[in-house]
Structures are given as structure tokens and as C-alpha cells.
Amino acid sequence: MTKTNLSFLKKLKLKSISAGASTGVAWLKTTGEIIESYSPVDGKLIGKIKTASRGDYEKVIATAEKAFSEWRKIPAPKRGEVVRQIGDELRKHKESLGMLVSYEMGKSYQEGLGEVQEMIDICDFAVGLSRQLYGLTMHSERPNHRMYEQWHPLGIIGVISAFNFPVAVWSWNAMIALACGDVVVWKPSSKVMLCAVATQQIIESVLKRNNVPEGVLCLVAGSSKEVGDVMLEDKRIPMISATGSTRVGIRVAQKVGERLGRSILELGGNNAIIISQHANLDLALRAVTFGAVGTAGQRCTTTRRLIIHEKVYEEVKKKLTKIYSQLSIGNPLDPANHVGPLIDTSAVKDFSSSLQKVKEQGGKILIGGKVKQGKGFETGCYVEPSMVEVKENLPIVKHETFAPILYLMKFKTIEEALHLHNDVPQGLSSAIFTENMQEMEAFLSVGGSDCGIANVNIGTSGAEIGGAFGGEKETGGGRESGSDSWKAYMRRQTNTINYGNSLPLAQGIKFDI
Ligand code: UN1
Predict the structure, then answer these.
(1) Fewer CB atoms inside 10 Å of the end CB: C or N, the chain?
(2) How far apart are CA 122 and CA 102, in angstroms?
(3) Ligand 1 neighbourhood includes 431 CB (under 6 angstroms)
């Protein structure tokens, strides 16, 4: 195995034991247990984190609450200026942070860089947004009355992020929230806490030199028991934005819903690509491969199902099998490799048990399926990307396994393809490859894809930050990132002003005294 050059850890100034809690400008002397972070790439210890305890969490939240009363009064474009500088700071650290993302999470270095680029891009987006927090005006039915709506900051936004995007998904929430005048408390996944600590360290200098109130951008890296569960029930947090599995998301929705808090949920996906007989197969095969094996199948937008027209089925199967046989699996920091490790050995167990279910339910493994062993694979986290042929949506096909397993199935008519496509509990991302206008429009029409993202002639993963990101059904229904997702981070207020001398009631109601 290529030896990883760890000089990026020095550039990121990670200590051998990092504190797991920060108020943005100061680190706490945390009192939680120590967690060791090992790389799934080579099994080496990257660093330790003294996590946040419940008591540390309390301190952070109290500081965040105070910070909100100040931050919300700072003009939005001035808040945007701070976000702009955060983007610039991230630009300076793109390579080192991208490398840490790759090393701690296991995605390729290119994808690690891409993740930091998403952070930079959302900063740019949020800077513009800080001058565009528009409300509507409407015409009152009463004379001498004016009506309009305005958007006010909401308060503390709790961000619970998943291991697969250790830093980008936080930034989609945090940078928008910051521009909106909210403050943020971030609970990262305990599998990738060092990425969160490094990010927090990078932005610290910006917050300090701009005299941003203490508590505006906070980190509480702690266990679910000490931190996560408490956040869900904490009435001081009006909104929780959580990314993770559907199982976790249901709990978040219940707990936050019980106290009538808001939540944005971005949960499981079971994303399919329909390949029509009218597809440009060259494009389709490239998109399928990146979508299915990129991040070793651990994106929520990963391509998990291929619905292929019977006329091109054999050709697609043959060509893809060839591509899969040529994929190189290994250290994701080595650009020669296409597929890195899964996050941990428990993810490997899920991979193997899903393939076991495939066999029991009558699916046929076409290629892959094994856990890699031997030199370079000592962590036990590397698996072979697998292609499975199925006759219909078997129970296992409806389940999201967070690993590189791609199901192939056949269709005859576009109606049948759309039925197969939507016949799963999840609804995040989707795509069709076709050059036929009728098929394309059918896919995008009201009776077409039921997902939050529907693409034509590009794959299911790798969405741009400018669009709203999220999906329907078990994906949770939330939207983050671009478009007008910012509205979820603010409270809307409708205002009616009477500038006349009488008091007409709406709906023409008479009430004389
Ligand atoms: C996720 O996997 O949780 O569209 C987010 C994509 C990325 C984000 C994925 N921009 O694949």
C-alpha cells in the first residue's frame, strides 16, 4: 500500500488530543470521554478527541443563546462579509482539509477536494443571499392599508451531520444560517470528528478578527447520549437539521416534533437511473460508474438501481461488468485507485449481509461481492463493488445498503420503468438517460420520478449547491443548500399597516361600538 504522507495534519494544526467543543472563538476544556479516530484507509490512529459532555453542551448552548441576541441585529450583508472570509479561509486550506476528509472518511482525495469546494461554493452563495433575503408585498383588501412579509432569524440551528460528508453538509446549513442571522451548534458524526475540529479551527481566525460574538458558530463533538439526544429535546433549539439514516431521522422527527420544533431531514436514498434504448450509452456508463462506486457507495445520492430497457440490457450489463472488472480498489489518496474503503467494519458487515439476502431472495451476483483481504487491505474495510441482477424490486432492493451494490433490472415500456423507479420507500435522487424527448418529459412530469432530484443525461450524485437538496418519502422531505431553502432557517412575519383614519375590518365585517 502507498504510504500516506501525513504532513497535512501539521498544516491543519491538529493536536494529539483535540477538545471536542468550541464556541467559535474559544475551545472548552471538555470533560467527555476520549475518542480515538482511526483511518479506514490504513488503520492508523489519526488523533484523539476529548469529547463534549452534557455539561459542556450546556455551556455551549448558553453561549449560543446569548450570541443570537447580538448576531441577529448585525445587518445581513455584514454577516455575509464574515461568510465571505470563511470561504476565503477554506480556499487556503482546501488541499489539507480535503486530504483529512479523504483520510478520516475514506473517500478519494478528488472527492475530498470536491467536498471542500462545496463548502467554498455555499459560502459564495450565502454571501449573495445576505443581500437577497426578500419578502413579498401584497395588496391589502382594505383602503389605506399596506401588507408585506419579512423574514427574521430563527435562533439556534442544531446541525447533526453524517460521516459520509464530514464537512460539506454542515456548511450548507451553517453558512446559510449565518447569513440569515441564526447561530449554529454542530454535532458531527463520532466517526469523523477530526474533520469537524479541523474545520472549526480554520474558521476560528475569521470569527476572531471580525469580532463575531462568542457562540455564533459552535461545535459540540460528543456522543448521541451526551449531546445528540439532549439537542433533540432542547427547546432552545427551534430547528434541527439532521443528515443520516431513515432510522435515525424518524427518531429526530419524533423527538423534535414532540416539542413542535422544526426539522430538516436529509435521510436515505435509493437512487435509480433509467437507461432507455434511446440513451447515449457512453455517457450513461460513465455516470453510472461514478454514481455507483464513487465514495464507495456511501453517498445518499449513490446510484443503487439501474432500470434498463430490454433492447440494451445485455449490452449495458456486458460493458458495465467489464468496467467493474477494471476498477482498482485501494488507498483513496492514491489517484490510481477508483474505490476506497467503507467507513468501518460494521459497514462491511452490512454489505456482506445484504449480498447474503440477495442470494436468499433470488438475485444473482454478476461481479464483486467479496471483502478484500491481504496486503493493503488490513483494515478489513475494503470491499469489491458489486453488481446484482434482479427480476423485480426484491425486498433487499427496497432497502438502502450504504455500500457499493448496484441492482440491474429490465423494462419494456416507459410506464413500467417509472413504476419500478418509484416503487421504493425512498425518494432522493433519480436520473434518466435518453435522447427521446417524450421519455425525458414523461420522467420529469407529474407522473414521472417522485424524487427531490430528477436529472436527464447526468447521474444521481454530485448535485450542485445552487439547487435545493433533499427528497421525499423516507428521505425525509427537507431541503438544504441552494434555491430558497434559506426560508426554513428564518421565521416569516406578515405585517399589515393601517395608514388611514378609520378601522375597516377584513372580510367586510361590521363591528361598531
Ligand atoms: C450526502 O450524501 O449526504 O449530490 C450528500 C451529492 C453531494 C452531496 C451528497 N453534492 O452527491
Answers:
(1) C
(2) 20
(3) no
